[in-house]
Each structure stands twice: as C-alpha cells, then as structure tokens.
C-alpha cells in the first residue's frame, strides 16, 4: 500500500473520530460561546469529510 494512501486513510479515520467527539461535546455543552466555537469546528470537519467522499482526497490543515 502506498504510504501516502495509508496516511490519508488514517487521517480520515481520525477525522471521523473528531467529528463524533465534537458532536458529543456540542450536545453536552451549555455555554453558548463554546457551543458556537464547537459548531464552527464541527462544520469545518464535516465539510472536509464530505469533500473526501466526493473527491477521494482529504485535505488536512497544517
């Protein structure tokens, strides 16, 4: 397996875990400022994952 492909698959796996964690944190949070910040991060991660499903490429922020 290509190393770049393996790293991409690993990045997607961890992105899905981040989304699940962000959703859980958002549901449990009561502070509106923190909820807004969590929602921003959640949307960004979900956008990257939906782009990955369409294009097959996952773009990470560095």
Task: Give a quick summary of the entry.
The chain is mostly helical and 62 residues long.
Describe the structure.
The protein is an all-alpha fold. It contains two helices and no strands. The chain has helices spanning 3-28, 32-55. It is elongated, with a radius of gyration of 13 Å. The relative contact order is 0.15. The model has no long low-confidence stretch (mean pLDDT 89).
- Sketch the major β-sheet: none
**Count of separate DSSP helical elements:** 2
Mean pLDDT: 89
Shape: elongated
In angstroms, what is the radius of gyration?
Answer: 13 Å
Order of helices and strands: HH
Beta content comes to: under 5%
Distance between the termini: 24 Å
Tally the beta strands.
Answer: 0
Helix content: over 70%
Briefly note the structural class of the backbone.
Answer: mainly alpha
**Can you tell me the residue ranges where pLDDT is under 50 for at least 5 consecutive residues?**
none
Helix-strand blueprint:
Elements: H1 3-28, H2 32-55
What are the key terms here?
62 residues, 2 helices
């Amino acid at each position: 397996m290509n190393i770049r492909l393996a790293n991409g698959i690993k990045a997607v796996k961890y992105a899905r875990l981040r989304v699940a964690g962000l959703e859980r944190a958002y549901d449990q949070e009561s502070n509106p400022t923190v909820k807004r910040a969590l929602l921003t991060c959640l949307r960004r991660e979900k956008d990257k994952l939906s782009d990955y499903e369409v294009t097959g490429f996952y773009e990470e922020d560095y």
